[in-house]
Amino acid sequence: MGIKNIFQFKQPAFxxxxxxxxxxxxxxxxxxxxxxxxxxxxxxxxxRSFIRNCTKWSxxxxxxxxxxxxxxxxxxxxxDDCRFLxxxxxxxxxxxxxYLAESLLIEVIHRSKCLFTLHRAYQKLIHIYEVxxxxxxxxxxxxxxxxxxxxxxxxxxxxxxxxxEETPPQIRSFYILxxxxxxxxxxxxxxxxxxxxxxxxxxxFIVEGIH
Length: 211
Description:
mainly alpha
């Protein structure tokens, strides 16, 4: 049999398998609706099970846990993706599932374009590390990094708050980062954060001081 005939013989079988794969749907329900398939796929079975239970509780039992992601599920939610993730992050934190809470909040940061949602996510992230850093000193650097990223939102938060005629939100990361830097005797770093905090309070910003 010639090369041309070999390919003519094998091609229909390959195309048939490809069509079957395209028709298969790994997840349905709320996960599909909110376009969280890739995020969901990266969670381990325990984490997915935890969120299924949280969703069931938050919906007052009106849907089953498996409805959140079953391929045949048509369950939907009025929440957007970030509100859904933030709600489950709160459940995870309360249950001391800190790693899962962090994963959910990082996904919010990757997705959200709303400054105040980002602020809320960073506030919760630093709260996680405020708890866990006392138990594990290895978490200190990550905690510090989250505080720095949070503080970089300060100028835009101030401007947006003024537009809404609202008081700019308190940024706890200023307080935490100052203490972290004092603990490691980083006097220059501490002074830089004090200056940034003053600039935030006065509405006059320079953020290059964060390293």
